[in-house]
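PROTEIN DESIGN WORKSHEET
SECTION A - STRUCTURE
LENGTH: 221
TOKENS:
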């Protein structure tokens, strides 16, 4: 059945406001599926126990760039990628992009829509690039395109053309820099997915508050 919601929005510098709306039966089911997927992600071993992603970059004039990384083992990464799959693949019914679009068109409140935009920028790598843009031979490594090329060539699929270009990229950057950057982008996705789940949970359960948080990653220069 359709789901009606009512939110009291408290934003510093403006009076409290009431936001009301309604999700169709299909939209309600999509939100429930998203939350089910998120619970499976949150209960997975990588999210329960944490997974390392440390990047240290050191450079002195006249010497090559020194890259030190600490990354999850392949089994831990495989578990994380499996749990992320229904969020990342756009063909899935409760993908991250699909649910963000649903919330954006239904919740008519500017601060909420700004929060959604912020989470989309965190999810697709734009926030990462605002902090630092990492490029190799004119290819921006910390980008959604490179991440998807990696997933389609080495993880979710085995696209041979993309596999060759990704192997060139892995070889063209020192140490495990490219892999560490890609894992860092996955952590950003986990954070964005978690934050949207917090909002969706309030709407579905008619809770009192939601909170956006950040899963820590370790990067040094």
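SECTION B - SEQUENCE
RESIDUE ASSIGNMENT:
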């Amino acid at each position: 059945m359709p789901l009606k919601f009512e939110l009291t929005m408290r934003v510093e510098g403006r009076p409290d406001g009431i936001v009301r709306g309604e999700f169709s039966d299909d939209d309600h089911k999509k939100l429930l599926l998203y939350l089910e997927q998120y619970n499976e992600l949150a209960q997975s071993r990588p999210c329960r126990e944490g997974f390392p992603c440390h990047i240290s970059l050191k450079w002195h004039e006249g010497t090559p760039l020194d890259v030190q990384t600490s990354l999850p083992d392949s089994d831990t990464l495989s578990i994380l990628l499996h749990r992320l799959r229904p969020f990342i693949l756009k063909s899935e019914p409760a993908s991250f992009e699909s649910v963000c679009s649903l919330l954006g068109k239904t919740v008519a409140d500017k601060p909420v829509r700004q929060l959604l935009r912020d989470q989309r920028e965190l999810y697709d790598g734009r926030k990462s690039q605002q902090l630092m843009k990492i490029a190799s031979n004119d290819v921006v490594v910390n980008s959604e395109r490179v991440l998807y090329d990696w997933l389609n060539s080495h993880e979710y699929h085995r696209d041979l053309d993309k596999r060759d270009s990704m192997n060139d990229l892995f070889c063209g950057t020192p140490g495990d820099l490219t892999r560490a950057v890609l894992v860092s982008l996955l952590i950003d996705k986990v954070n964005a997915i978690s934050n949207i789940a917090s909002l969706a949970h309030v709407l579905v359960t008619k809770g009192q508050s939601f909170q956006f948080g950040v899963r820590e990653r370790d990067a040094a220069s």
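SECTION C - NOTES
The beta strands are 3-9, 17-23, 54-58, 66-70, 135-136, 139-140, 218-220.
Residues 3-220 form one domain.
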